[in-house]
Amino acid sequence: MFKKFTKKKKATENPAAPGRGIVAGANAIYQVTGIGLAIAVLILVGTFVFLALVREPAVRAAQMENIAGNYAEQQAGTVNAYVALLRQRLAGSAGSATAGSVLQGQDREAIAAVERELIAAFPDLVSLRVVPVGEMGTAEFDSGEHGLRNHIEVDMVRRAAEGNPTQPESFRHEDRWLTSLAELVRGETEALNAVIVASVDNATFATLLESVNPGSGHYALEQRFTNRDGSTHTNTIAEAGSGNVSSYESFAVIPDTNWRIAFTPSKTLMATLAVSNRPLYVVLGMCLAAVIGGFVIVAVRIPKIIEHDTFRILAAADRKTDLTLAVPQLVDVARQLRRATLRALRQAAEPDRAIAVESEGEILDFEDNDLGADFDEVLDLDTEIDEEEAATVAIPTGFPAHIFRAYDIRGNAADELTSELMAQIGQALGSIAGERDEQTLLVGCDGRTSSPALKSALVRSLLETGRDVIDIGLVPTPILYFATQHLNAHSGLMITGSHNPRTDNGLKIVLGQQTIHAGGIQQVRDRVLRGGFSQGKGRLINEDVVATYVDQIQQDIAIAVPLKIVIDAGNGATSELAPLLFEELGCEVIPMFCTLDGNFPNHPPDTSDEANLTALVQRVQDEGADFGVAFDGDGDRLAVVTPSGRIVRSDVLLMIFAQDVVSRNPGADVVFDVKCSRNLTDLITQCGGRPVLCRTGHAFMKQKMAETGALLGGEFSGHMFFGERWFGFDDGMYAAARLAEILSTQGDDLDTIIEAFPTSVNTPEIRIPVEESEKQPLIERITRNADFSSGKVNTMDGIRVDFAEGWGLLRASNTTPALTARFEAESEEALDAIMHEFRQQIALVDPSLKLNF
């Protein structure tokens, strides 16, 4: 038997002694650590040098230029406001009863009295003249007549008399700069017209410039003029302040004039705005200390860890015991040592022969051990260990977890999605966006009464996390999607309740041009509950992208023949934009409910409920329109009505679009959701396209379109996605414009086009109210327990069963507390049979569920 485990010190061996095959070389751990430390320090120092000498100066220069531009814009706005106010007051005076009565008689003395009366009302003016207009409708006079000073005023009066717009003009007069404006006074006839010419001393503008931001720099009001040779020059017509940092000189044009503001910052302002690099150097020092300290710890700890694992391996070399090592790379060493030990022991002649195992500086003796076990069985090191368990976040009582839905956040704005919760959501989203390197977020909102307060809370919280915010105002949701494609900011948040009741509100989220859904929404919820938000101070700017959006659609859509269109905006976010867009496209627009009202007084903002389209159907028929279109509360859905008053189901509308798109793109993918008719599948195939089925939800649709490269997609709820010629997001207004383009070029009306499609007997989308918390478990029970053995079952989204003569669908709504159902068949009898089978199977799972089909 072997002796009990003991330790005996071994004589130190001479590394150079002959016959020794193991010697100590250079310490590789210190070498690798030193190289790693040098590389890390070089990278760190290089990064901070770049930041301090390249990036930070460039950022500061950009900030300075931006600030200088803001100062110039501010003064330009001040001057513009003053001129506009002066024009407004002159126009009011010009239209007064006193001025009109004097013009009746063309009496010069009476006119002079009116001039004195008017100039008394304008203390800013140095002169005012009323110039009658001749019989031919033009002013007949020369320079010097009627108190006019020069040809500039003469030309202004002539242009005003002809009804043309005039700009304020500055000129030198008696060693000072004056500015004149002209306003037309209309009499009962053109022969009784006159022009009021008012002049102001430009010292007024200098005083105005000096009053705003004094000491910030030099402001110059410049007037541009063009010489006969075509060259452009400027005259300084007023100035104030002093500035000497010419490298940041900025200009701002004053609208409706040939003036601009030139701003040169002062050194005082630059010094105030300058940021020291000292914090950067402090951070560099801290980072260097942390890196060096980390490498030192590694260099000290690794040899000790290896020494400890080596001792454990040697100590357990012949033991039947489990062994866990801190260094996985030593596992093979342990196995080989175990096998070598077993072989040596089995070959020993004497059973009680002790085996000495070399361990640096020690001899380890073992006895009383069972050596029959295989080493691999006792040293269990092949098992993979999951070191990170999925983190679960406890949901406190009272927290409205149900508002974090499949692809957006939506709930009652009074007691669920409150301003306080929105602020927390904003902090979570700002932190998540920062972690994804998304510095700037666009924010828009719809017209609901709760939206302004929620938007204010959201923007404030985003700024507190250090994110910059671009506020695009009150817009339809497609405008936000468009802005993420058009502006240099690819993430955005849209405050909207979409088609939900007026008491609800919500949030649609785009990060990196991708609409987030299920997992992303739950991540936001968990971040709200867990906290740990980033801190910072972001910047807020306003941006109007509506005009660019309209211009982009104008460039894309070509309507060959003007159409008459009835637009029902439902008092939603498209109320002002949709009529404007179609008028710009050349259509005759008949607006309905196009006054923005967050209470939705005429009907709920849900276009998928055909009861909400009754007024539109009647108006289309009464007006003899080419078609009618309704938009939901935020404009990403549409519903269409034919000239005969027929409501076009969205899967039929998608057939029209599929024919058009696939005709130009043979083999193109067309994505549609599980609620769509299977006639759509047949039509896409016949046109040469590839039908792709997808689960319901605009976020899922966009994801599927991106995966497949599809050029067209559509949902039965009214979301339409164009990847051809557009950006792939759901946009009700653009979809309506594409329909108008198709109708204007084909020659057939909408009813005729639809009649050519295959027909079936079908239902609209049927909503079955259930508790929010019950809908998903209920669908799972029905999917698991219902027996539809006579049909083909698809559980991609709820349960859809295809039979020989039709199909039926039951699923949980992504946006409302309801189940949704739809049925289609070749005949009424087949439709009734399919609905009956669904009722029977649902009753077997939950007899208490009240069905409305």
Automatic annotation (TrEMBL):
Domain spans labelled Alpha-D-phosphohexomutase alpha/beta/alpha: 403-513, 548-645, 650-758
EC annotation from Swiss-Prot or TrEMBL: 5.4.2.8
MF annotations from Gene Ontology: magnesium ion binding; phosphomannomutase activity
Enzyme class, spelled out: isomerase
Cofactors demanded by this protein: Mg(2+)
Keywords, in A-Z order: Isomerase, Magnesium, Membrane, Metal-binding, Phosphoprotein, Transmembrane, Transmembrane helix
UniProt catalytic activity: alpha-D-mannose 1-phosphate = D-mannose 6-phosphate
Chain ranges passing through the membrane: 28-54, 280-302
Keyword Heme tagged: no
PROSITE patterns (alphabetical): PGM_PMM
Top-level lineage group: Bacteria
GO biological process assignments: carbohydrate metabolic process
Gene3D superfamilies in alphabetical order: Alpha-D-Glucose-1,6-Bisphosphate, subunit A, domain 3 (3.40.120.10), Alpha-D-phosphohexomutase, C-terminal domain (3.30.310.50)
Pathway annotation from the record: Nucleotide-sugar biosynthesis; GDP-alpha-D-mannose biosynthesis; alpha-D-mannose 1-phosphate from D-fructose 6-phosphate: step 2/2
Coiled-coil regions listed in the entry: none
Alpha-D-phosphohexomutase C-terminal domain sequence ranges: 765-840
This protein's record includes keyword Isomerase: yes
Record-stated family: Belongs to the phosphohexose mutase family.
Record's protein name: phosphomannomutase
